[in-house]
Design goal:
Blueprint (H helix, E strand, L loop, with lengths): L1 H33 L16 H11 L1 H21 L5 E11 L2 H10 L19 H4 L4 E15 L3 H67 L5 H36 L26 H11 L1 H20 L6 E12 L5 E12 L7 H48 L2 H17 L5 H35 L11
Antiparallel strand pairs: 1-2, 2-3, 3-4
Helix pairs in contact: 2-6, 3-6, 6-7, 6-9, 6-12, 8-10, 9-10, 10-12, 11-12
Length: 482
């Protein structure tokens, strides 16, 4: 009998541990999958982004765009605050007083409708009835007041203040357009910089491949005693230079991606893969933009210039609001009162009226406020003139940059093909022992440089086209725009 009992006791002892182990095995995988997923910690590549995708992402998430949007909300709230002066104000007030101050006791008795012909009580013979008025006992009064106030005329302060707030709102909305225009150009420039750097890496890799092939030829010729050791050393040095250039280009691509992420308002460590517009559509400079037409377009479309005009209009209206101190202030009011000493009985009353006031001397406060606003207005006008000059300079420089890039493209159109043919001929001659290693290296360097110059001119042309769009206030569309 003891043996079965021992078996049962062992089973009872280990069953909970077994059950716990099974439960942990079932829950642990679920718990792992339930842990929060940190996408920033992953290096999984995102889907390829087009230029339009990058621009849209920047406009939606850039801190500059978000801050500009909040400035618009602030301006909208300021408009509502300015418009509040057109509406009546309604308030309710509750006041408790207890006093033995004779005039106040008398007025509170009147308000409570407690005075009568026998106040304070029928006097005995020889008693002065007015003595009670001079030394009254303390009196409590609860006053509930419903107050309506309506400013009828504030010297133009409300009218001009509202107009100034509306103009400031328009300036804030134009400020958002300015931010969008600048972000679009910044994203476009960074996007093209990545594409240019990616192509420069390909050029550097091709240069390394060619020099390694040349090193094999030079080494073979040295082993066959038809070339000098110095030839091998020169090619080796050139290979080291090309590998250094390749390493720099690979680091530059990471810097360019960080710059694009920064322009889009994204973490700089976010992996990027671009759908990439190539330079296939690039050709010669066909139609040079007219400087006068571009300047006129910029004057008409640049949002910051229009925003400056709105700010000037706002200051003009602010000057009108500052003059309000020279004029009378007229207000209408009405209030309904309920007075009671202990809430057992009460009396109500009402009052309506109109009040007017005119400041005779305010210590030159109004005068100095008007002078300050006018000075700010003149400052804003000077800033607008400076901004106009800067915009004209930006337009001219962008057109010159595009013209320069187009000229370089035309000049380099045949240079790449000629350099490739030259390198092929010199490479063949060196293999046959008919050319010096210096000629071979010079041809390779010339080929690499002309390829890089062509690449730089192509993307400079594209960035200059985008710069013209920004300078004239136009939206920058995806890809190449002639």
């Amino acid at each position: 009998m003891r043996s079965p009992r021992r078996v049962i006791s062992v089973r009872i002892r280990f069953a909970p541990a077994r059950f716990l182990m099974i439960l942990l095995c079932a829950i642990l995988p679920l718990a792992v999958f339930a842990l929060p997923f940190d996408a920033s910690a992953q290096d999984e590549p995102t889907h390829p982004l087009s230029l339009r995708d990058c621009i849209d992402l920047s406009l939606a998430s850039s801190p500059d765009a978000l801050a500009a949007q909040e400035r618009i909300e602030q301006a909208r709230a300021a408009v509502k605050q300015a418009q509040a002066g057109f509406y009546p104000r309604l308030s309710i007030n509750e006041t408790f007083l207890r006093s033995n101050f004779a005039p106040m006791v008398f007025s509170n008795e009147l308000a409570q409708a407690q005075l009568s012909g026998s106040f304070p009580f029928p006097p005995p013979p020889g008693f002065d009835p007015f003595g009670g008025f001079n030394n009254p006992p303390p009196l409590s009064n609860w006053n509930t007041q419903l107050l309506l106030q309506w400013p009828l005329f504030q010297g133009g302060r409300t009218f001009y203040g509202n107009r100034a707030a509306v103009r400031s709102l328009s300036a804030s909305e134009l400020g958002l357009k300015t931010v969008h225009n600048d972000l679009t150009f910044a994203v476009t420039s960074a996007y093209y910089e990545i594409l240019k750097t990616e192509n420069s890496i390909k050029i550097a890799e091709e240069s390394v491949r060619q020099i390694r092939s040349q090193l094999d030829v030079a080494s073979a010729r040295f082993e066959n005693e038809v070339a000098l050791k110095s030839d091998v050393l020169r090619v080796t040095v050139r290979l080291a230079e090309s590998e250094e250039a390749l390493a720099i280009a690979r680091h530059n691509i990471e810097r360019a991606k960080s710059q694009l992420n920064l322009a889009m308002g994204q973490p700089v460590t976010r992996p990027l893969e671009l759908a990439g517009t190539t330079s296939e559509a690039l050709g010669g400079f066909v139609d040079k933009p007219s400087l006068e037409e571009s300047l006129e377009l910029a004057r008409r479309n640049r949002p910051e210039l229009e925003g400056m005009n709105k700010n000037i209009e706002a200051l003009e209206n602010s000057a009108g609001a500052a003059k309000a101190g020279y004029y009378p202030q007229i207000n209408a009011f009405a209030h309904y009162d309920i007075d009671s000493e202990d809430f057992s009985d009460s009396n109500d009353s009402w009052t309506i009226g109109i009040g007017a006031s005119l400041s005779i001397f305010d210590g030159f406060l109004t005068r100095s406020a008007v002078q300050s606003t006018r000075a700010k207005l003149r400052e804003a006008e000077a800033q607008r003139d400076k901004l106009l000059l800067q915009i004209e300079s930006e337009v001219k420089n962008a057109i010159l940059a595009k013209s320069e890039a187009a000229t370089r493209l035309d000049a380099l159109a045949q240079s790449v093909a000629e350099a490739e043919e030259t390198f092929r001929i010199v490479s063949d001659r060196y293999s046959e022992g008919l050319a010096l290693v210096t000629e071979l290296l010079d041809a390779e360097v010339a080929l690499t440089n002309v390829r890089l110059h062509r690449l730089s001119a192509e993307y400079n042309y594209m960035v200059a086209s985008a710069a013209i769009e920004r300078a004239t206030g136009g939206a920058i569309s995806e890809g190449f725009k002639q």
